[in-house]
Here is the input.
Amino acid sequence: MFRFSRIPSLMALAIFLMPALSAQAQYTSDIDIYSGNSTTDRPNVLIILDNTANWTTAFPNEMAALKSTIAGLTDNKFNVGLMMFTETGNPNSNEDGGYVRAAIRTMDSNYKTKFQDMLTGFDVGADKSNGGKAGKTMAEAYYYFTGSAPNSGNNKVKADYTGNKSGTPSSNAIYSTSGNALASVSATRYIPPGSGVCARNYIIYISNGAVQDNANDNTDASNRLRAAYAAASMARPADITGLSPNGSQENFADEWARFMRNSPSNITTYTVDVDKVTTGQGPGWSALLRSMAQQSGGEYFSVSSSGTELAEKLSSIFNQIQSVDSVFSSASLPVSTSARGSFDNQVFMGMFRPDRDSHPRWRGNLKQYQFKYDPITDTLALVGADGEAAIGDKGFISTSAVSFWTSASTFWTNQQLGTPPSSSDRPDGEVVEKGGVAQLIRTANATTQANRNLYTCVGCATGTVLSSTAAAKFATANSSSFTAISSNSTERDQIINWIRGTDNAADENGPGGTTTIRPSVHGDVLHSRPAVVNYGGSTGVVVFYGSNDGMLRAISGKQTGTGAGKELWGFIPEEHFPKLKRLRDNTPKIRISTTNLPASDLPTLRDYFVDGPIGLYQEKNASGGNTKTHLYVAMRRGGRFIYALDVTDPTAPKFLWKKSYNDTNFEKLGQTWSEPVVAKIKGNTNPVIIMGAGYDADAEDLATAGTTTMGNAVLILDAFTGAHLKTLNTTRSVAADVNVVDSDSDGYVDRAYAVDTAGKIYRIDLETPSSSDQSVWNIYTLAELSETSTTRKFFYRPDVLRTQKFTAIMVGSGDREKPLYTSSNDAFFTIFDERVSKGTPAAAPTTIKKSELREVGSTAQTNPSLAKGCFIPLARGEKVVNASTTFLGTTYFGTNQPNNGSNGQTCTANLGLAKTYAAPLFCRAPESQDLEGGGLPPSPVAGFVTVTYTPPGSDSPVTTQKPFVIGKPNPKKSPLQASLPPGKLTIPQRRQYWYQQNAR
Here is the structure.
């Protein structure tokens, strides 16, 4: 699940601002992380303007576009400056590159006027450079941002230095403003932009065509880059190759853009290709511009020189720079019906936005994006319905992104959202509640909510078809059966209609008129990860997911066409009825661990609903058609029960069964956090469910864990009937998913691995070489990784990789339900299970301890006889907060470290420092990357996706499969960005069990 959190603004998504009270709490949860503020420092933006002879045609329109862009900036929201290519002639020095024509200063009304006047005073001939040097100019920009020694920027007559009076009146007005880039014309160090320590840095490179870097210039730019890496104590990676066409590949502008992004200055580069040339040097130059943007996490734009188009793109860039960030849940993809192991090109994301005033009603949505392969740079990216980049420079959805199913509207007339604020759903950008499924629900039910297919199940029998059973309708007609909602019939009917979408609480800003649906009709998708089923044929993809507005939803996952994105139905479990009133009342406020309780109007712990994982079972016939599809729906903190639904017909769900802690043999069932994993095992005719018994919140949420009374087991039950088959006891809560293994590839699971909140890894054997009877089902502790002085918890499924000689179990520790704790001592572990045969030995093997593991170094450890395993140590307070994924020889996982000021991450507030790791197999030193904005990154997703693209120089599209990883280190520093994985698998590997039909 993606607890990717960010943001701080009513307009965009996410930060959960609690009252300004001192911390005092007994109970904790992962939403504690949303209790912080984020930076408000103005971003520093340096425009690099190509003033070579190439600007002659575009000059008047470019000046007009720049002036209109500057005029349109909100006062005091940006610091902006201008760099240009150097000019020749006395008294200029002969060093080529770039110089600062106007220093980065606050764009208040006074400086905006001066800046526009300066642009008006430019002359196409008198201000022309003799020949641009892109690589050296990017280096000069870095020197300016960091206050380093200039190379080409001093001893230039038009440079912005203190006391410069040699220019035109409009230029002198700039120079006379405080904040110059240089203290004198020959200054030996730059004066860096003056802003807060949390200010973000940007370059907007406006190109008018290929520049003239020669071999000597490229060598100089490369040498300077080497020195910059050394000064920053960073290892220099290999130079960028693979540009297509590669005519400008030797230019170091993109290597400099990559370095600046990864340096402590964290500079993002946007490139604007004006009047892109399609012959000669043009295609190669455009490939370089695209690479500059991609390598730095920015965006590439191709525009005409009409002026209007340039102004629109510049405005879009500034909007992205100004935007706040969002919060999301994990991505899911549908499995291709034609190729097992590959995914269709659809990416579904559940989203949420906490209420900034701590109210319990959080908004959410489900949106769809897709992959786009760029053959020029050999890269993958996430894009919207318009084919444009979906991920912005801050690692989240771009302000201009348009998700599938989103269309123009006027719904937000009374509550304009976005960057810039707009009444329309398109573009939905970073705004959680705009576009997507939420818009389609609002549009289809704008004036009446009576036609929504909302169901429940109060005392219904197995096999009940909810859509054709009157008593299963969640409507006022059945109000007398829903007394758990409220004992007052009038209030009860109001709540029922409100859940259906009617804006009858008089506390939201809908558009008015005949529109009666409430803006908050779609609640937050917080921990539930979309389960995606490809039914094939005309039905296509259907997405099932839970949300904290009380319901499980089924959505048509088609990208386009009739019914695309339509809500098929929603299901509200009766167990949630007593909590619905609080949603409508939007009170009392939510209490988290940092809330100091007031004397009255006490906040209470948050209510949760359908917030857990969804297990999936599918049967297919010989032609690949669906013959049976079941859902197994867990609740996480929403409750101690699970539901089973038959969705073979996705428009007519059937109730199969439900189990709770009140049922015989299920007394140990805690909050259902663990995915009900479906598997076939010998000795049982029906498939079975193998799942952790859940989470004991009463014990685990305490500052010091209490005695466990539930959740401390692995449960096995019949998937078709829900009948209890076996309880395998553990020490503490098994909140994580169980990983099942088919060790001999006969189609039956014979082994499983589980982990608990005591830091233990368990091996479960379900078969011996001679028997599969339940009497041989056994569990034993494979590893115990807590220590006397250090308690460790596992919350995520262990990643399992089998080889011929051993099985590697990889899992990270970290109490994600205490995200603000700074004293934890966690790690990412690899344990070698040397027993590759079936069954538990007569004497269980000695439990592996942390002291038997070696700390990861740079040397591969492929022989388990040399060690029982290894561990990657994490920083103090750093915790693994998602499930690891191993793909093509590399294991990916993410962490979060709370910000207490000691780690220097003072700009991420309580969202902490988020990191993603890529650890090569086995036990090699990992690559890691700090992610933009902090928060809890989602679990990585990896596989092969089908993409269609047109190769350079061809008019014929090509469809092929590309490997992908969502969540590996990438130029956007985003946990949502798609990337091509490095390398290939070089060790023997076996699939442990193929059964799940969707990306989990």
